[in-house]
Design a protein that fits this description.
This protein has helices at about 5-20, 60-75, 135-145; strands spanning about 25-30, 35-40, 50, 50-55, 75, 80-90, 95-105, 105-110, 120-125. By secondary structure, the protein is of the alpha+beta class. The chain has a single domain, classed as Nucleoside Triphosphate Pyrophosphohydrolase (Alpha-Beta Complex), CATH 3.90.79.10. Strand 2 and strand 3 (about 50) form a beta hairpin. It is globular, with a radius of gyration of 15 Å.
């Protein structure tokens, strides 16, 4: 990750803190028919993550989830995603919460080409996650796929 990308991520987080007293994000655990999970690698933060992002003013959590999945992975949500949990994310701020949804019914309109935000995307078997998969992703997958207790923190 370049120095510019690190600074860009810090500036974005700072601007969110100044504009919003509390932030809310929506992330999707998209699971395909082979039980593989969709992960994305951003250009501005290290690691592999679930696709998702912030809920904008005037937008529901599910609308934000659908928008982010379409933007980050060309995924069109079909049906109603299942809410897995709402988590306090204190990794970057004391003000952030993440709503995590399980998405099993969807249509992918095509492969997502890399750009200034998304470096790559892919579906991975839970036992073959790429190097750099975040601790939060691993924890959510253990909760969902292995019936581990659901944590309160992201």
């Amino acid at each position: 990750m370049s120095t510019w990308q690190k600074w860009r991520g810090r500036i974005l987080h700072l601007s969110f803190r100044l504009r919003r007293p509390m932030t809310l994000g929506a992330q999707g655990v998209v699971i395909d028919r082979q039980q593989r999970v969709l992960l994305v690698r951003h250009t501005y933060v290290p690691g592999w993550h679930f696709p998702g992002g912030g809920v904008e003013a005037g937008e529901t959590i599910r609308e934000a989830l659908a928008r982010e999945l379409l933007e980050e992975a060309n995924i069109e949500v079909q049906g109603t995603p299942q809410l897995h949990g709402i988590f306090f994310n204190d990794q970057n701020s004391r003000r952030d919460h993440v709503a995590c949804f399980i998405v099993r019914h969807y249509h992918q309109t095509g492969l997502r080409a890399p750009d200034h935000e998304i470096a790559e995307t892919g579906f991975f078997a839970p036992h073959e996650l790429p190097e750099g998969t975040t601790r939060a992703v691993r924890a959510r997958l253990a909760e969902i796929l292995e019936n581990q207790p659901i944590a309160e923190k992201w």
